[in-house]
Amino acid sequence: MNNENRRQGSFKNKVLFPVVAIFSVSILIISAINYAHLHSTIKTKTIANLEIFTIDVLLDIRHLHVIMETAKQTLTGKHIAIAKTLTGLLEKMPELKTHEELKGLASSLDAIEINIVNQNGINRQQ
User: Fold this and answer.
1) Are the C-beta atoms of 126 and 115 separated by less than 8 Å?
2) In angstroms, what CA-CA distances link 14 with 20, 51, 59, 63, 99?
3) What's the structural domain count of the chain?
4) What pLDDT is stored for residue 4 in this prediction?
5) pTM given for the model
6) Looking at the domain assignment, is residue 8 inside a domain?
7) Is 116 helix (H, G, I), strand (E, B) or coil?
């Protein structure tokens, strides 16, 4: 029996411990490589997602700028039409010059106020 115990001890020392050690070292190396690869992959994906997000934000800003410019052009056209209409009304009806009358006219034209200026740009009436 003593001989058998020595053989088992010898087997453990000669075969089992080196196999377990090699297995443990292999797992550590594989884990380290996997961690490095995972870290690199996460960094790459994060940068790619940020680039996509940045492009989307820039496209949204450009789209909103186009909408804003269109709205400005539309409002400019509307204001010019209101000014021409008002000029025509005041030429046909010069008696429309009191403050209340002009206020009523502004309200009907969906304008906040009407300013009448002379040739020099000086406000004559609001």
Assistant:
1) yes
2) 11, 56, 68, 73, 111
3) 1
4) 58
5) 0.49
6) yes
7) strand
Q: How far apart are CA 116 and CA 29, in angstroms?
A: 85
Contact yes or no for 111/82 (Cβ under 8 A): yes
Q: Is residue 102 part of a domain?
A: no
Which strand (E) or helix (H) includes residue 50? helix 17-92
* pLDDT for the residue numbered 30: 95
Rg of the Cα atoms in the chain: 43
CA angle 93, 114, 87 (to 5 degrees): 40
**Is residue 56 domain-resident?**
yes
Q: How far apart are CA 102 and CA 111, in angstroms?
A: 10
Tokens of 33: 């490589």
Residue range(s) defining the domain that contains residue 28: 2-92
b or e along 7-24 (b: 16 or more beta carbons within 10 Å of the residue's beta carbon)? eeeeeeeeeeeeeeeeee
- Is 107 inside a domain boundary? no
Q: Contact at 8 Å (CB) between 124 and 102?
A: no
Chunked into runs of 10 residues, the chain (126 residues) has average pLDDT values of: 60 82 95 92 94 97 96 89 82 74 80 75 58
